[in-house]
Structure formats: C-alpha cells, structure tokens
Design goal:
Two copies of one chain form a homodimer. With 390 residues, chain A is α/β, with parallel strands linked by helices. The first copy, chain A, folds into two domains: 173 residues, Rossmann fold; 199 residues, Dehydroquinate synthase-like, alpha domain (Up-down Bundle). Helices cover 46% and strands 13% of the residues of chain A. In chain A, the strands form two sheets. Chain A has a six-stranded parallel sheet with strand order 1-8-5-4-2-3, sandwiched between helices. In chain A, helix 5 runs parallel beside helix 7, helix 6 runs antiparallel to helix 7 and helix 8 runs antiparallel to helix 9. Chains A and B meet through strand 1, helix 6 and helix 7 of A and strand 1, helix 6 and helix 7 of B. Strand 1 of chain A pairs antiparallel with strand 1 of chain B, so a sheet runs across the interface. Chains A, B: One of its GO terms (molecular function) is metal ion binding.
Chain lengths: 390, 390
C-alpha cells in the first residue's frame, strides 16, 4: 500500500446492531407501506418464529407484507426474476431480506429487477453478463439470521445463473441496504457446522480484503478487528451456540467483514470457490473457502509478509516474526471449529473437474484475480485446487 | 460498556481522501448547478489559491458558484443568517464549506437556514435554543483545509449566538455532508502552533469519545486508531509542516475522530471549552482544550482505568499497567508539540470569570456532562477550570 494512499469511504446503510434490535422494525421510519419479505425455501424462518416476528413488527408499523419463500442456499436467477415479477404485480415499495446471505443477496437482486426491464444478467458484469448500468432499485432492508456474508453492510449480491453455471457477485451504490438490523438473538439456533462455515466466510472476507492490493486504511481497520474477533470468538460460538456474547461478537465481526467488502474487496479465493459451488450448488460457500484457504494463503506467504504478521499479531495477541504464523493460527482456528478436515469429494466434486474450475473462476469473477497480492498463473490456480482436494 | 452492547452506525457521507483528491470536484456528480462557497474572513483561501482551485474545478464540472467570505474563527449566528438569505436570493442548490471547522460548520448551518424559516436558534437544542425539528436542508460539501474538527465526517455544526454568549453544537441526519473531500495537500501551509491546536482538537474528540459512557464497538475502533496516529504523527506535522506523510496521517486521524463524533460523543471537556471561547472568541478552541485536558482527564483517572490503559497502549505501543500512563503520554505529546504551557490569561481570560464558565457550560451544552464516565459536581468542574488556569 502506498505511503500516501488515496481512498474513499461511503456506506450509506443505516446499521442497527444488538440483541433484541429486531423490534426496531416496529418503530423505525420504513421506506414504504408494503414490503416483500424474501426468505429461503427451508423451514427455519417459520420454525423459529422469525418470519412471524418480522410480519408482526411491520404490522405494528402500519406496513403490509407479502412473502416469497423459495430462495436456495446458492440463490438462482430464475427465483430473482419470479419474485421481481410478483413484486411489480403486487406493488411492493421495498424488499426485506430475512435469513442468510442467499436471501439478502436475492432481496438486493429482486430490488433491482423490480425497477429494471429484461433479464438480471443484462446488468451483471462478468461471465456472459451484459453489464448495463442500473439507475434505480427499490429500497432494501437486510435482517441477517446468520453471521457470515456481511451482505448487510455491503452492496454485493451473489446470484447463480443456473443455465450457464455462472455464480457472480453484482452490486452498485443502489444495492446497499437502506437499513440493516443485526440481532444476534436470531442466530442462536444455527447448528455448529454452519456456524463454522459462515464464520469462516466472514474471516476470509476480512483476510482477503486485508491482503488485497486495493486495501485502504479504513478497510484495514475493519479487517483486523474482524480477524481478531473471529479468532477469539468463533470457536466459542461453534462449541457453545447458546453463548450470546460469542454470537454477538461473531455477528459484529461478520458485519465488519462486510464493511471490508464495501471498502476493499475479496480476492481470487472467492472466485475459485464460486466456480466450485456454481457446479456443485450443494457445497456450502464457507466449506469451499475453508478447503481452499491453506493452499491459497500459502501461495502468497512471501508476497505480503508484513500483512500476514499483522494478522497473526491480532489473532494470537503476540508479536509475530514470520508470515507463516498467520497460516499456523488459521490452521489452529479451523481445528478448534472442527473444520480442519473438509473433504470436497463428499459434496460430489471430482478431481477431473478441477481444470474446468480454473477456467470458470477466470471467466466469471476474473476481476478478483487482479486484486491478489500478485498475479497467479493458471498453473498456480490449478495447484491450489489440487492441494485443497480431498 | 455492556458486554452485549446495542448500537448503531450511519454515516451517509461519501468521503474521498488523499493527496490531490480536490480535483475530483471536477468529475464527481454534484448535487446541483449552483454552489455557494463559504470561506473565512481571513486571507488564506485566496492567498494559497484554494478558492480559485475550487471555483475552477466547479466550472469544469459545469457548476456556477458565489462566495460568502466573512466567517470568523468562532463562527457567529448573524453570518449564518446573512449567508442563508443570500443563498435563497441567488438560488443556490448546495453549499460548500472550504476551510477550517468554522467555515464547514457554518456551511452546515447555512444549508439548514436556506430551507427553514425564522432564526437559527429556533432549531438549536440547548441554551435558549427552541429545538424545533429540521426536516430539510440543502446538500453540503465539506473541503477541510485544516486537520482537527472532523466536521467533514459528522453532522455537527458549532455556532456562537453572539448576543447570548452561547456556543452550541447542532446537528441532525441532514447536516452530514453529502460529500467530503479531504486533501492533505491543502493543509501544508498551516503554521506549527495551529497544526498543534487543531490536531489536539481531533485527539480530544477521539479520547473523549473513547471514555464517553455512550462509546460503542465501532466508535472505539475509530477512536483508538485516531489516538494512535495522532500520538505518532502530530509532533512530526507540527515540527515539519512540509512532511506530507505526517500531514496525511494527521488528516486521516482527524476524519476518524469525526467518525467518533458521529458514533459516540465528546464529553464535558468540550462543554467547558465552549464556555470559555463563547466569552473569549479569540481563544482557539484547541488551545482551550489543551489547557483543560490534564485536569479533566486526571479527574476520571480511576473511573475508567481499563480505557485509559488501552489509550496508553496504542500511544506508547507498550502494554500499560496503570491509568496514569495515558496522562503521562498526553503530557509528552503536548511537550513534543510545544503546547505544554498554554496560558489562558494570554487570551484575556480572568480568574474571576471561572465560576460563570461553570454555569455557561452547564446551560449551553449540559447534555455532554451526562456522557462523562461519571457525573461531575459543580465544584469539580470549577476545580478543573482553576487547575487549568495560568
């Protein structure tokens, strides 16, 4: 990073954080009178009563709502298009994403397609997307019930074009949520393995954003704090899911990592993972990242040594004197979270698929490769995939 | 602070930071076609060519401008009212504050009074202000040429009602700048003693915001980084004003301290200083704060010991084990910046004035006393004034 860096900061989102804050939905000034609530196709938003809570608080606030409940863990374009059509028909004023990153990302894409004609891929940049400018979108409210994507604090929406096997992040200033409510009490029911996958997603947003060649003084501040908190509290949250303090620290770290995404960027580790889960949608994004991470970070060990040592400093709370301290600390953290032995083959990945992953990663999210500490060759990318494959 | 704190974050300002960034005025989308530029009654904005630069870049961007050039170092309400009347007559779309905190704060107040009827004091809360709600304001652009107030990153405008000797901070979500451009190259000409006064103002925004009972995890992050940077780089900038790296670090620390103001709050040290400069407008705000600071922070030494030690940690980069390490480090920093011997009497303050300062501080900015680590008695406040008086 330059000694006199030039950078910018613009996070227009109003963020409300804390246990019980979901109740603010009843009292905040909301951007309209009719909401479309986006939830996943799973059962948890109803089972744990979160959907009823949200609808109840909206009603108290004199806001009507309809629900779209089909979103998949790796959300797909056809659901975005279907929900946007319903949203127009029903005259909704704004979109609420309630759930994990998939539903909030979908809410962002739906907010765009409720106001713009044609296909969502007309607006996506990368892959076969046409990259047309977006000049309007409905307001978005994000209510995460997982701690991982940080999407509540950034403009990004990652959607898979299921016909083309392209999983691409899209975003602009209009896709920052207008309001995000992060209530750690809504995260208490997440099972240990998902807590770990999601928490590591946040960790990699921060760590990639810290080594990215577009890192800035403000993204560094958010990143190191997220890394510190996750190293300390993610193992606690994984091993004792009812520990509300740990849940809150992890949730805040995830939001901080979202701020990193909004001020720096993730790097090609994310491109490489997106290629895997574009082909194998059943592979959780966080699990894919965990599998790639040791080989990925090992590759850059000698390219940004000071930054690796700074990350190790805040993780171990001891002065580091070699870059591999970071990789050692990462390995320890995986072990404490019981994710040190992820087998990609268990999600159906075949070793012979790996070369086509290299191409997909370059084609769909090639831009992130330009933000790595140094450019990777195709051989190096394939090598990272190979080392990560079990 | 609570183990599971509830807090919010909302900084709608778009911040552009870096050497040379002033040129972005020529290319950014601006909020209208005619600007009112607010500068001080001094000569520096013209002498150093900053005003010409701004007008030139606006012209390139197809934006007309008029200039209001009367603002005093402690800006007064009658100038706000006069400029707002001109702004309405001339049909300006937005307000640019170019200069120190006084001009940017005035720009904010003018932006409010260009859209609201009656007197500015109808909208101010505190003192004899009527606290009426503000529902509209013109967009504001902040271009600081000093590093101290942080007003470019917060909603606050401190204006003196010269008839009533009330110096009060006012702000709401509409008085966040829409755009702030912080270009350290514009700060190179500030003389050493003003560099020190302004830099310590930023330091106290951060340190007060860190010990305030409304501090939050996000304000703490901004505050500790501002404190770290100022301890390290303010003496360099004071002693070598042409050192652009030090200027940039101090400027960024000042913006961070503004973010502290937007997410936590300053405390009664600021109320106490405002009372002094309301009576003696020739007293620079930073000099007043420096004079008060040792007695002020000494008063709370045993009330937030951990927080004092954390501040000492980031200042000295050594593990602190007693709260007075912070006060020692503060004293060292003053000495290195040649402001360890501020004599309030040199600005005309009389010792017999001190009791009425206690009353003015309570009357006009009493709210900040409720944010101190613990409530101060009037005797304690008077005692702080007495110990600070030379």
């Amino acid at each position: 990073m330059n000694a006199n860096p030039v950078f910018s900061l613009h996070i227009p989102t109003r963020i409300l954080f804390g246990c019980g804050e979901i109740k603010k939905l009843a009292t905040e000034t909301l951007p309209g009178k009719k909401a479309m609530i986006i939830i996943s196709g799973g059962t948890s938003m109803r089972k744990y009563g979160y959907l009823d809570k949200v609808i109840g608080f909206l009603t108290e606030n004199d806001v009507a709502s309809i629900v779209y409940d089909k979103i998949l863990p790796n959300p797909i374009k056809s659901h975005v298009m279907e929900a946007a059509a319903i949203c127009r028909e029903q005259g909704c004023d704004f979109i609420i994403g309630l759930g994990g990153g998939s539903t909030i990302d979908s809410a962002k894409a739906i907010a765009v397609m409720a106001c713009n004609d044609g296909d969502f891929w007309n607006y996506v940049t990368g892959g076969s997307g046409k990259g047309r400018p977006v000049t309007k979108a409905l307001p978005i409210i994000a209510i995460p019930t997982t701690a991982g994507t940080g999407t509540e604090a950034d403009p990004w929406a990652v959607i898979t074009n299921e016909e083309k096997q392209e999983k691409i992040g899209f975003g602009c200033s209009l896709t920052f949520p207008a309001l995000s409510i992060i209530d750690p009490e809504l995260m208490i029911s997440i099972p240990p393995h998902l807590t770990a996958y999601q928490g590591f997603d946040a960790f990699f947003h921060a760590a990639e954003g810290f080594i990215a060649n577009c890192a800035t003084p403000i993204s560094d501040l958010y990143a190191l704090e997220a890394i510190r908190l996750l190293y300390k509290y993610l193992p606690v949250a994984v091993n004792d899911g009812k520990n509300l303090k740990a849940r809150a620290k992890v949730a805040w770290a995830s939001t901080l990592a979202g701020l990193v995404e909004a001020t720096s960027s993730c790097t090609s580790e994310h491109s490489m993972e997106h290629a895997m889960s574009a082909y194998y949608p059943q592979l959780p994004h966080g699990a894919g990242l965990i599998a790639l991470s040791e080989a990925y970070f090992e590759t850059f060990r000698n390219d940004c040594m000071k930054r690796y040592m700074k990350m190790a400093d805040v993780m171990t709370q001891q002065k580091s004197n070699r870059p591999s301290d970071f990789i050692d600390a990462l390995a320890r953290m995986k072990k404490e979270c019981h994710v040190d032995n992820i087998k990609l083959s268990e999600w159906g990945l075949k070793e012979e698929d790996l070369p086509k992953m290299v191409q997909n990663a370059r084609d769909t999210m090639g831009g992130l490769f330009t933000l790595d500490p140094r450019p990777l060759t195709d051989d190096e990318v394939l090598n990272i995939y190979r080392q990560s494959y079990k």
